[in-house]
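Researcher: Before we compare anything, I want clean individual predictions. No alignment, no superposition, just each chain on its own. First chain goes here; please echo the sequence and then give the C-alpha coordinates.
Model: Echoing the first chain and its structure:
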Amino acid sequence: MRIDHLLVEATQRLARAGSSSPRLDAEILLGHALAQSRTWLYTWSDREVEDLDRQCFESLLVMREAGQPVAYLIGEREFWGLPLQVARSTLIPRPDTESLVEAALDKATAEQGRMLDLGTGTGAIALAFASERPGWQVVGVDRVPDAVRLARRNGERLGLANASFVESDWFAALEGERFDLVVSNPPYLAPDDPHLAQGDVRFEPASALIADDQGLADLHYLCLTAREHLLPHGWLALEHGMTQDGAVRDVLQRAAYRDVQTRLDLGGRPRVTLACMMP
Protein backbone atom coordinates (compact mmCIF):
# COMPACT_ATOMS: atom_id res chain seq x y z
CA MET A 1 0.00 0.00 0.00
CA ARG A 2 1.16 3.57 -0.76
CA ILE A 3 2.26 5.89 2.01
CA ASP A 4 -0.59 8.36 1.50
CA HIS A 5 -3.23 5.61 1.44
CA LEU A 6 -1.73 3.99 4.52
CA LEU A 7 -1.85 7.30 6.39
CA VAL A 8 -5.50 7.89 5.50
CA GLU A 9 -6.46 4.44 6.76
CA ALA A 10 -4.39 4.79 9.93
CA THR A 11 -5.82 8.25 10.66
CA GLN A 12 -9.36 6.89 10.43
CA ARG A 13 -8.53 4.02 12.79
CA LEU A 14 -6.93 6.29 15.36
CA ALA A 15 -9.81 8.74 15.18
CA ARG A 16 -12.24 5.91 15.93
CA ALA A 17 -10.01 4.86 18.82
CA GLY A 18 -10.32 8.33 20.35
CA SER A 19 -6.96 9.92 19.57
CA SER A 20 -7.07 13.72 19.84
CA SER A 21 -4.48 14.01 17.05
CA PRO A 22 -5.00 10.99 14.77
CA ARG A 23 -3.25 12.31 11.65
CA LEU A 24 -0.21 13.52 13.57
CA ASP A 25 0.01 10.24 15.47
CA ALA A 26 -0.18 8.27 12.23
CA GLU A 27 2.57 10.33 10.60
CA ILE A 28 4.90 10.07 13.59
CA LEU A 29 4.41 6.32 13.90
CA LEU A 30 4.86 5.65 10.18
CA GLY A 31 7.93 7.89 10.09
CA HIS A 32 9.35 5.90 12.99
CA ALA A 33 8.63 2.58 11.27
CA LEU A 34 10.35 3.79 8.10
CA ALA A 35 13.12 5.72 9.92
CA GLN A 36 12.11 8.81 7.96
CA SER A 37 10.87 12.33 8.75
CA ARG A 38 7.30 13.55 8.32
CA THR A 39 8.55 15.79 5.51
CA TRP A 40 9.88 12.73 3.71
CA LEU A 41 6.47 11.07 3.99
CA TYR A 42 4.86 13.98 2.16
CA THR A 43 7.61 14.19 -0.44
CA TRP A 44 7.37 10.50 -1.29
CA SER A 45 3.69 9.94 -0.50
CA ASP A 46 3.15 7.77 -3.60
CA ARG A 47 5.80 5.21 -2.59
CA GLU A 48 4.79 1.69 -1.71
CA VAL A 49 5.55 0.55 1.84
CA GLU A 50 7.36 -2.77 2.04
CA ASP A 51 5.79 -5.64 3.96
CA LEU A 52 8.23 -5.65 6.89
CA ASP A 53 7.87 -1.89 7.40
CA ARG A 54 4.11 -2.18 7.14
CA GLN A 55 4.08 -4.92 9.78
CA CYS A 56 6.15 -2.72 12.10
CA PHE A 57 3.74 0.18 11.53
CA GLU A 58 0.74 -2.06 12.14
CA SER A 59 2.19 -3.17 15.47
CA LEU A 60 2.69 0.45 16.55
CA LEU A 61 -0.76 1.37 15.33
CA VAL A 62 -2.46 -1.37 17.36
CA MET A 63 -0.67 -0.22 20.52
CA ARG A 64 -1.67 3.39 19.86
CA GLU A 65 -5.28 2.31 19.31
CA ALA A 66 -5.11 0.80 22.80
CA GLY A 67 -4.14 4.23 24.12
CA GLN A 68 -0.41 3.80 24.63
CA PRO A 69 1.44 7.13 24.35
CA VAL A 70 3.21 7.89 21.09
CA ALA A 71 6.28 9.03 23.04
CA TYR A 72 6.65 5.59 24.65
CA LEU A 73 6.10 3.83 21.34
CA ILE A 74 8.87 5.70 19.53
CA GLY A 75 11.04 6.28 22.63
CA GLU A 76 11.38 10.03 22.13
CA ARG A 77 9.71 13.37 22.88
CA GLU A 78 10.78 16.93 22.06
CA PHE A 79 10.94 19.45 24.91
CA TRP A 80 12.23 23.01 24.65
CA GLY A 81 13.36 22.11 21.15
CA LEU A 82 15.53 19.28 22.49
CA PRO A 83 14.99 15.67 21.35
CA LEU A 84 14.82 13.58 24.54
CA GLN A 85 14.72 9.85 24.94
CA VAL A 86 11.81 8.72 27.11
CA ALA A 87 11.02 5.47 28.90
CA ARG A 88 8.16 4.01 30.88
CA SER A 89 10.04 4.69 34.13
CA THR A 90 9.52 8.44 33.65
CA LEU A 91 6.82 10.97 32.89
CA ILE A 92 6.50 12.19 29.33
CA PRO A 93 7.66 15.85 29.16
CA ARG A 94 4.75 18.18 28.45
CA PRO A 95 4.59 21.64 26.84
CA ASP A 96 3.06 23.20 29.98
CA THR A 97 6.22 22.35 31.92
CA GLU A 98 8.12 24.74 29.66
CA SER A 99 6.46 27.43 31.79
CA LEU A 100 8.57 26.17 34.70
CA VAL A 101 11.73 26.44 32.59
CA GLU A 102 10.80 30.00 31.56
CA ALA A 103 10.23 30.99 35.20
CA ALA A 104 13.57 29.50 36.23
CA LEU A 105 15.43 31.30 33.44
CA ASP A 106 13.84 34.60 34.44
CA LYS A 107 15.39 34.25 37.90
CA ALA A 108 18.79 33.05 36.64
CA THR A 109 20.13 36.49 35.72
CA ALA A 110 23.76 35.92 36.81
CA GLU A 111 26.35 34.53 34.42
CA GLN A 112 27.11 31.68 36.79
CA GLY A 113 25.21 29.79 39.48
CA ARG A 114 23.94 26.43 40.65
CA MET A 115 20.52 25.04 39.77
CA LEU A 116 18.88 21.90 41.20
CA ASP A 117 16.07 19.97 39.49
CA LEU A 118 14.27 17.63 41.90
CA GLY A 119 12.56 14.55 40.42
CA THR A 120 14.30 15.11 37.10
CA GLY A 121 12.87 12.10 35.21
CA THR A 122 14.09 12.36 31.61
CA GLY A 123 16.19 15.38 32.62
CA ALA A 124 13.92 17.63 30.54
CA ILE A 125 13.83 20.65 32.87
CA ALA A 126 17.51 20.42 33.86
CA LEU A 127 18.69 20.03 30.27
CA ALA A 128 16.46 22.79 28.90
CA PHE A 129 17.85 25.13 31.55
CA ALA A 130 21.43 23.98 30.98
CA SER A 131 21.10 24.63 27.25
CA GLU A 132 20.18 28.26 27.95
CA ARG A 133 22.62 28.93 30.82
CA PRO A 134 25.96 27.35 29.86
CA GLY A 135 27.74 29.14 32.73
CA TRP A 136 25.56 27.47 35.35
CA GLN A 137 26.17 24.13 37.04
CA VAL A 138 22.94 22.12 36.81
CA VAL A 139 22.19 19.08 38.97
CA GLY A 140 19.20 16.80 38.42
CA VAL A 141 18.17 14.18 40.99
CA ASP A 142 15.70 11.32 40.93
CA ARG A 143 15.11 8.40 43.29
CA VAL A 144 14.53 6.01 40.36
CA PRO A 145 17.86 4.60 39.07
CA ASP A 146 16.49 4.02 35.55
CA ALA A 147 15.44 7.65 35.36
CA VAL A 148 18.88 8.86 36.40
CA ARG A 149 20.53 6.69 33.73
CA LEU A 150 18.09 8.00 31.12
CA ALA A 151 18.71 11.63 32.07
CA ARG A 152 22.46 11.06 31.84
CA ARG A 153 22.08 9.55 28.35
CA ASN A 154 20.01 12.53 27.25
CA GLY A 155 22.61 14.95 28.56
CA GLU A 156 25.41 13.08 26.79
CA ARG A 157 23.49 12.93 23.51
CA LEU A 158 22.88 16.69 23.67
CA GLY A 159 26.47 17.45 24.66
CA LEU A 160 25.43 19.47 27.72
CA ALA A 161 28.47 19.04 29.95
CA ASN A 162 27.19 21.54 32.55
CA ALA A 163 24.39 19.15 33.60
CA SER A 164 24.92 16.14 35.87
CA PHE A 165 22.49 13.65 37.40
CA VAL A 166 22.47 11.92 40.77
CA GLU A 167 20.32 9.24 42.37
CA SER A 168 18.62 10.82 45.37
CA ASP A 169 15.24 10.80 47.13
CA TRP A 170 14.63 14.56 46.99
CA PHE A 171 17.51 16.14 49.01
CA ALA A 172 18.76 12.92 50.65
CA ALA A 173 22.07 12.76 48.78
CA LEU A 174 22.66 16.53 48.86
CA GLU A 175 23.49 17.14 52.51
CA GLY A 176 25.26 20.46 52.94
CA GLU A 177 24.80 21.53 49.32
CA ARG A 178 23.16 24.85 48.47
CA PHE A 179 21.85 26.27 45.23
CA ASP A 180 20.87 29.59 43.71
CA LEU A 181 17.79 28.00 42.19
CA VAL A 182 15.76 24.90 43.09
CA VAL A 183 12.99 23.73 40.74
CA SER A 184 10.68 20.74 40.65
CA ASN A 185 7.71 19.27 38.86
CA PRO A 186 6.71 16.90 41.69
CA PRO A 187 3.76 14.50 41.88
CA TYR A 188 0.66 16.63 42.46
CA LEU A 189 -2.39 14.56 41.49
CA ALA A 190 -4.70 13.28 44.21
CA PRO A 191 -5.15 9.47 44.30
CA ASP A 192 -8.77 9.88 43.13
CA ASP A 193 -8.06 12.46 40.42
CA PRO A 194 -10.13 11.56 37.31
CA HIS A 195 -7.23 12.49 35.01
CA LEU A 196 -5.46 9.31 36.12
CA ALA A 197 -7.91 7.30 33.99
CA GLN A 198 -7.51 9.47 30.91
CA GLY A 199 -5.10 9.71 27.98
CA ASP A 200 -1.36 9.14 28.30
CA VAL A 201 -1.49 9.44 32.09
CA ARG A 202 -2.95 5.91 32.27
CA PHE A 203 0.40 4.50 31.17
CA GLU A 204 2.78 6.74 33.12
CA PRO A 205 4.34 5.74 36.47
CA ALA A 206 1.90 6.46 39.31
CA SER A 207 4.77 7.29 41.67
CA ALA A 208 5.60 10.32 39.52
CA LEU A 209 1.99 11.49 39.42
CA ILE A 210 0.24 10.86 42.74
CA ALA A 211 0.75 12.53 46.12
CA ASP A 212 -1.19 12.30 49.38
CA ASP A 213 -3.12 15.18 50.96
CA GLN A 214 -5.12 15.83 47.78
CA GLY A 215 -1.93 15.95 45.75
CA LEU A 216 -0.23 18.53 47.98
CA ALA A 217 2.03 16.35 50.18
CA ASP A 218 5.19 16.56 48.08
CA LEU A 219 4.64 20.24 47.29
CA HIS A 220 4.36 21.02 50.99
CA TYR A 221 7.46 18.95 51.77
CA LEU A 222 9.55 20.74 49.15
CA CYS A 223 8.37 24.16 50.28
CA LEU A 224 9.58 23.45 53.81
CA THR A 225 12.80 21.55 53.11
CA ALA A 226 14.14 23.58 50.18
CA ARG A 227 15.06 26.37 52.60
CA GLU A 228 17.98 24.26 53.85
CA HIS A 229 19.41 24.02 50.32
CA LEU A 230 18.86 27.53 48.98
CA LEU A 231 21.46 30.24 49.11
CA PRO A 232 20.39 33.65 50.43
CA HIS A 233 18.24 35.36 47.79
CA GLY A 234 17.90 32.02 45.99
CA TRP A 235 14.65 31.06 44.30
CA LEU A 236 12.34 28.05 44.58
CA ALA A 237 10.09 27.31 41.58
CA LEU A 238 7.43 24.59 41.71
CA GLU A 239 5.01 23.27 39.11
CA HIS A 240 1.57 22.37 40.50
CA GLY A 241 -2.03 21.71 39.51
CA MET A 242 -4.20 24.56 38.25
CA THR A 243 -6.24 24.69 41.47
CA GLN A 244 -3.31 24.31 43.88
CA ASP A 245 -1.66 27.72 43.52
CA GLY A 246 -3.38 29.21 46.57
CA ALA A 247 -2.37 26.34 48.83
CA VAL A 248 1.25 26.47 47.62
CA ARG A 249 1.47 30.23 48.09
CA ASP A 250 0.06 29.90 51.60
CA VAL A 251 2.70 27.33 52.63
CA LEU A 252 5.50 29.43 51.16
CA GLN A 253 4.34 32.59 52.90
CA ARG A 254 4.00 30.80 56.23
CA ALA A 255 7.53 29.42 55.74
CA ALA A 256 8.80 33.02 55.56
CA TYR A 257 9.68 33.11 51.86
CA ARG A 258 9.38 36.47 50.11
CA ASP A 259 8.18 37.67 46.70
CA VAL A 260 5.79 34.72 46.36
CA GLN A 261 4.28 34.77 42.87
CA THR A 262 2.40 32.46 40.50
CA ARG A 263 2.87 32.16 36.73
CA LEU A 264 0.38 30.90 34.15
CA ASP A 265 0.95 28.06 31.68
CA LEU A 266 0.38 28.09 27.92
CA GLY A 267 -3.35 27.67 28.48
CA GLY A 268 -3.59 30.60 30.90
CA ARG A 269 -3.91 28.37 34.00
CA PRO A 270 -1.96 28.83 37.27
CA ARG A 271 0.93 26.38 36.90
CA VAL A 272 4.18 27.59 38.53
CA THR A 273 4.71 29.29 41.88
CA LEU A 274 8.01 30.92 42.82
CA ALA A 275 9.40 32.29 46.07
CA CYS A 276 12.63 33.91 47.21
CA MET A 277 14.74 32.73 50.15
CA MET A 278 15.58 35.71 52.33
CA PRO A 279 18.69 35.70 54.56
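Researcher: Okay. Second chain, same rules.
Model: Second chain and its structure:
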Amino acid sequence: MKSSSTSSIILILILVLLNLYSINSTYLPECAEIINKYIGNSAPYVGIQMTMVDQSGLVTYARGRSLSCCQQYPDMIMGTMNYPAVFSNSTNCNGLNGADLVQPFHVTGVRSLFYDRGSFYFRSNGSVQVSLVEGQGQYSFNLTYCKDKILVGHTDSRSFVFHLSNVNWGSIGTETCGDAPRPPFPNPAAPSNKVSTTSTLQASWNEGSNYYSLWETTIQNTGGVIINNLVLASTMQLKDATTMWRMNTVSPGKYTPVDPSLGPNQSYKFSFIKVGHDYPIFTVAN
Protein backbone atom coordinates (compact mmCIF):
# COMPACT_ATOMS: atom_id res chain seq x y z
CA MET A 1 0.00 0.00 0.00
CA LYS A 2 2.84 2.37 0.92
CA SER A 3 4.59 1.64 -2.36
CA SER A 4 1.39 2.36 -4.28
CA SER A 5 0.90 5.66 -2.44
CA THR A 6 4.50 6.70 -3.11
CA SER A 7 4.13 5.81 -6.78
CA SER A 8 0.98 7.92 -7.00
CA ILE A 9 2.73 10.92 -5.45
CA ILE A 10 5.68 10.55 -7.83
CA LEU A 11 3.29 10.28 -10.79
CA ILE A 12 1.45 13.45 -9.71
CA LEU A 13 4.74 15.33 -9.35
CA ILE A 14 5.85 14.19 -12.80
CA LEU A 15 2.54 15.35 -14.30
CA VAL A 16 2.81 18.73 -12.57
CA LEU A 17 6.37 19.20 -13.84
CA LEU A 18 5.39 18.15 -17.34
CA ASN A 19 2.49 20.59 -17.24
CA LEU A 20 4.73 23.45 -16.12
CA TYR A 21 7.25 22.54 -18.78
CA SER A 22 4.61 22.42 -21.48
CA ILE A 23 3.18 25.80 -20.39
CA ASN A 24 6.62 27.40 -20.65
CA SER A 25 7.75 25.67 -23.83
CA THR A 26 4.70 25.63 -26.07
CA TYR A 27 4.56 28.13 -28.90
CA LEU A 28 1.19 29.89 -28.96
CA PRO A 29 0.03 30.94 -32.43
CA GLU A 30 -1.79 33.98 -31.05
CA CYS A 31 1.44 35.26 -29.47
CA ALA A 32 3.41 34.86 -32.68
CA GLU A 33 0.60 36.56 -34.59
CA ILE A 34 0.71 39.62 -32.32
CA ILE A 35 4.51 39.89 -32.37
CA ASN A 36 4.62 39.61 -36.16
CA LYS A 37 2.33 42.63 -36.44
CA TYR A 38 5.18 44.72 -35.04
CA ILE A 39 8.06 43.12 -36.97
CA GLY A 40 8.88 44.87 -40.23
CA ASN A 41 6.35 47.60 -39.43
CA SER A 42 6.73 50.79 -41.43
CA ALA A 43 7.42 52.50 -38.08
CA PRO A 44 10.92 51.28 -37.12
CA TYR A 45 10.38 51.33 -33.36
CA VAL A 46 8.02 49.59 -30.96
CA GLY A 47 7.14 51.15 -27.63
CA ILE A 48 7.32 48.54 -24.85
CA GLN A 49 6.28 48.71 -21.20
CA MET A 50 7.28 45.78 -19.04
CA THR A 51 6.52 44.70 -15.47
CA MET A 52 8.34 41.90 -13.63
CA VAL A 53 7.45 40.22 -10.33
CA ASP A 54 9.85 37.82 -8.60
CA GLN A 55 9.23 35.25 -5.87
CA SER A 56 10.17 37.70 -3.11
CA GLY A 57 7.47 40.14 -4.25
CA LEU A 58 9.86 42.67 -5.81
CA VAL A 59 8.09 44.51 -8.63
CA THR A 60 10.08 46.15 -11.42
CA TYR A 61 8.61 48.53 -14.01
CA ALA A 62 10.42 49.74 -17.11
CA ARG A 63 9.55 51.30 -20.43
CA GLY A 64 11.36 52.23 -23.60
CA ARG A 65 11.54 51.53 -27.30
CA SER A 66 12.75 48.57 -29.33
CA LEU A 67 13.83 48.09 -32.91
CA SER A 68 11.42 46.19 -35.12
CA CYS A 69 13.99 44.96 -36.47
CA CYS A 70 16.61 44.99 -39.14
CA GLN A 71 18.13 43.11 -42.07
CA GLN A 72 20.49 41.14 -39.84
CA TYR A 73 17.65 39.95 -37.58
CA PRO A 74 14.42 40.05 -39.62
CA ASP A 75 12.48 37.87 -37.15
CA MET A 76 13.07 39.94 -33.99
CA ILE A 77 11.89 42.85 -31.92
CA MET A 78 15.18 43.87 -30.29
CA GLY A 79 15.80 46.40 -27.51
CA THR A 80 17.62 49.61 -28.46
CA MET A 81 17.86 51.34 -25.09
CA ASN A 82 18.90 50.28 -21.60
CA TYR A 83 15.32 50.65 -20.35
CA PRO A 84 15.53 52.78 -17.19
CA ALA A 85 13.52 50.98 -14.51
CA VAL A 86 11.99 51.73 -11.12
CA PHE A 87 11.71 49.17 -8.32
CA SER A 88 9.24 48.53 -5.53
CA ASN A 89 11.92 48.82 -2.83
CA SER A 90 13.93 51.85 -3.97
CA THR A 91 16.21 53.23 -1.26
CA ASN A 92 17.57 56.21 -3.19
CA CYS A 93 15.43 58.78 -1.38
CA ASN A 94 17.18 60.49 1.55
CA GLY A 95 15.09 60.57 4.68
CA LEU A 96 15.50 62.24 8.05
CA ASN A 97 19.09 62.69 9.27
CA GLY A 98 20.40 61.51 5.89
CA ALA A 99 19.00 57.99 6.28
CA ASP A 100 17.73 56.22 3.17
CA LEU A 101 14.04 55.44 3.15
CA VAL A 102 12.38 52.59 1.29
CA GLN A 103 10.06 54.40 -1.10
CA PRO A 104 8.40 52.29 -3.80
CA PHE A 105 8.94 53.36 -7.40
CA HIS A 106 10.75 56.59 -6.58
CA VAL A 107 12.20 58.06 -9.78
CA THR A 108 15.49 58.96 -8.09
CA GLY A 109 16.03 55.21 -7.80
CA VAL A 110 15.97 54.65 -11.57
CA ARG A 111 18.51 52.10 -12.78
CA SER A 112 19.28 50.54 -16.14
CA LEU A 113 17.64 47.17 -16.65
CA PHE A 114 19.74 45.81 -19.56
CA TYR A 115 23.32 45.96 -20.73
CA ASP A 116 22.69 46.47 -24.45
CA ARG A 117 20.27 45.78 -27.29
CA GLY A 118 21.14 42.08 -27.36
CA SER A 119 19.98 41.73 -23.75
CA PHE A 120 16.26 41.93 -24.56
CA TYR A 121 14.37 40.65 -27.57
CA PHE A 122 11.26 38.87 -28.82
CA ARG A 123 11.42 36.38 -31.68
CA SER A 124 8.59 36.02 -34.16
CA ASN A 125 7.77 32.54 -32.80
CA GLY A 126 6.88 33.92 -29.34
CA SER A 127 10.15 33.23 -27.52
CA VAL A 128 11.72 35.88 -25.30
CA GLN A 129 15.29 36.51 -24.12
CA VAL A 130 15.90 38.77 -21.10
CA SER A 131 19.38 39.34 -19.62
CA LEU A 132 19.19 41.64 -16.59
CA VAL A 133 22.00 43.76 -15.19
CA GLU A 134 23.39 43.60 -11.66
CA GLY A 135 23.50 39.81 -11.56
CA GLN A 136 19.72 39.44 -11.70
CA GLY A 137 20.05 36.61 -14.17
CA GLN A 138 19.29 35.60 -17.73
CA TYR A 139 15.85 34.29 -18.68
CA SER A 140 14.68 32.48 -21.81
CA PHE A 141 11.02 31.59 -22.03
CA ASN A 142 8.02 31.40 -24.30
CA LEU A 143 5.00 33.61 -23.94
CA THR A 144 2.09 31.82 -22.29
CA TYR A 145 -0.73 34.32 -22.76
CA CYS A 146 -1.25 36.98 -25.42
CA LYS A 147 -4.23 39.22 -26.11
CA ASP A 148 -4.31 42.40 -28.17
CA LYS A 149 -1.20 44.31 -27.04
CA ILE A 150 -0.56 42.43 -23.77
CA LEU A 151 1.94 39.56 -23.66
CA VAL A 152 2.63 37.39 -20.59
CA GLY A 153 5.38 34.89 -19.86
CA HIS A 154 7.09 33.34 -16.86
CA THR A 155 10.02 31.32 -15.58
CA ASP A 156 10.27 29.36 -12.35
CA SER A 157 11.29 32.52 -10.47
CA ARG A 158 9.76 35.50 -12.31
CA SER A 159 6.65 36.56 -14.15
CA PHE A 160 6.79 39.05 -17.02
CA VAL A 161 4.04 41.25 -18.50
CA PHE A 162 4.71 43.26 -21.67
CA HIS A 163 2.62 45.91 -23.39
CA LEU A 164 3.44 46.67 -27.04
CA SER A 165 2.56 49.87 -28.84
CA ASN A 166 3.16 51.59 -32.17
CA VAL A 167 4.30 54.64 -30.25
CA ASN A 168 7.48 55.22 -28.24
CA TRP A 169 7.54 55.79 -24.50
CA GLY A 170 9.68 58.45 -22.86
CA SER A 171 12.39 57.35 -20.44
CA ILE A 172 11.57 57.04 -16.75
CA GLY A 173 13.38 59.52 -14.56
CA THR A 174 13.17 62.55 -16.86
CA GLU A 175 9.99 63.75 -15.14
CA THR A 176 10.15 66.46 -12.50
CA CYS A 177 7.60 67.77 -10.02
CA GLY A 178 5.16 70.07 -11.75
CA ASP A 179 5.59 68.47 -15.18
CA ALA A 180 2.43 68.11 -17.19
CA PRO A 181 1.44 64.46 -17.78
CA ARG A 182 3.37 63.09 -20.74
CA PRO A 183 1.60 60.67 -23.05
CA PRO A 184 3.71 58.37 -25.22
CA PHE A 185 4.98 59.93 -28.40
CA PRO A 186 2.04 60.22 -30.80
CA ASN A 187 1.93 58.39 -34.07
CA PRO A 188 3.11 60.47 -37.03
CA ALA A 189 0.35 62.73 -38.27
CA ALA A 190 -1.59 61.78 -41.35
CA PRO A 191 0.15 62.96 -44.53
CA SER A 192 -0.56 66.59 -45.38
CA ASN A 193 -0.19 67.56 -49.02
CA LYS A 194 1.38 64.16 -49.63
CA VAL A 195 4.12 64.82 -47.06
CA SER A 196 4.68 62.93 -43.81
CA THR A 197 7.21 63.51 -41.04
CA THR A 198 8.50 61.01 -38.48
CA SER A 199 10.81 62.02 -35.63
CA THR A 200 13.06 59.72 -33.60
CA LEU A 201 14.58 60.62 -30.25
CA GLN A 202 18.38 60.20 -30.31
CA ALA A 203 19.35 61.49 -26.86
CA SER A 204 18.09 63.65 -23.98
CA TRP A 205 19.83 65.39 -21.10
CA ASN A 206 19.64 68.35 -18.74
CA GLU A 207 21.98 71.28 -18.22
CA GLY A 208 21.17 72.59 -14.78
CA SER A 209 17.42 73.22 -14.76
CA ASN A 210 17.16 73.16 -18.58
CA TYR A 211 16.10 70.00 -20.43
CA TYR A 212 17.19 69.28 -24.02
CA SER A 213 16.67 66.48 -26.54
CA LEU A 214 18.32 65.53 -29.83
CA TRP A 215 16.02 64.34 -32.63
CA GLU A 216 16.28 63.07 -36.19
CA THR A 217 13.29 63.75 -38.44
CA THR A 218 12.52 62.11 -41.78
CA ILE A 219 10.42 63.93 -44.38
CA GLN A 220 8.74 61.53 -46.82
CA ASN A 221 7.15 62.48 -50.15
CA THR A 222 4.24 60.05 -50.26
CA GLY A 223 2.79 61.45 -53.47
CA GLY A 224 3.50 60.93 -57.16
CA VAL A 225 4.93 64.35 -58.06
CA ILE A 226 8.04 66.33 -57.15
CA ILE A 227 7.66 68.70 -54.20
CA ASN A 228 9.60 71.95 -54.51
CA ASN A 229 10.41 74.54 -51.85
CA LEU A 230 8.68 72.69 -49.02
CA VAL A 231 8.23 74.71 -45.81
CA LEU A 232 7.52 73.02 -42.45
CA ALA A 233 6.19 74.85 -39.42
CA SER A 234 6.67 73.93 -35.75
CA THR A 235 6.07 75.58 -32.38
CA MET A 236 9.06 73.81 -30.78
CA GLN A 237 11.90 75.89 -29.33
CA LEU A 238 15.39 75.11 -30.60
CA LYS A 239 18.24 75.15 -28.10
CA ASP A 240 19.75 77.95 -30.16
CA ALA A 241 19.99 79.11 -33.78
CA THR A 242 22.89 76.73 -34.50
CA THR A 243 21.24 73.49 -33.35
CA MET A 244 19.35 72.52 -36.51
CA TRP A 245 21.15 70.74 -39.33
CA ARG A 246 20.17 70.31 -43.02
CA MET A 247 17.30 72.81 -42.71
CA ASN A 248 17.26 76.56 -43.40
CA THR A 249 15.17 78.93 -41.30
CA VAL A 250 12.63 80.83 -43.42
CA SER A 251 11.18 82.76 -40.47
CA PRO A 252 10.73 82.01 -36.76
CA GLY A 253 9.18 78.55 -36.50
CA LYS A 254 9.34 77.83 -40.24
CA TYR A 255 11.99 75.71 -41.93
CA THR A 256 12.85 74.48 -45.43
CA PRO A 257 15.19 71.66 -46.56
CA VAL A 258 18.64 72.60 -47.81
CA ASP A 259 17.83 70.52 -50.91
CA PRO A 260 14.80 72.30 -52.44
CA SER A 261 13.30 69.34 -54.36
CA LEU A 262 11.92 66.05 -53.05
CA GLY A 263 10.95 63.44 -55.65
CA PRO A 264 8.10 60.90 -55.42
CA ASN A 265 8.69 58.37 -52.60
CA GLN A 266 11.95 60.08 -51.68
CA SER A 267 12.87 60.99 -48.11
CA TYR A 268 14.99 63.67 -46.51
CA LYS A 269 16.53 63.65 -43.03
CA PHE A 270 17.44 66.51 -40.73
CA SER A 271 18.44 66.82 -37.08
CA PHE A 272 18.01 69.34 -34.29
CA ILE A 273 18.32 69.95 -30.57
CA LYS A 274 15.21 71.35 -28.92
CA VAL A 275 14.17 72.51 -25.49
CA GLY A 276 12.29 69.83 -23.54
CA HIS A 277 11.68 66.13 -24.21
CA ASP A 278 8.23 66.31 -25.77
CA TYR A 279 7.63 64.98 -29.28
CA PRO A 280 8.18 67.62 -32.01
CA ILE A 281 5.23 68.28 -34.32
CA PHE A 282 5.67 69.59 -37.86
CA THR A 283 2.99 70.79 -40.28
CA VAL A 284 3.24 71.77 -43.93
CA ALA A 285 3.15 75.56 -44.15
CA ASN A 286 2.94 75.98 -47.93
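Researcher: What stands out in the second chain?
Model: The chain has two domains: 24-165, 195-284. Additionally, The longest strand covers residues 195-207.
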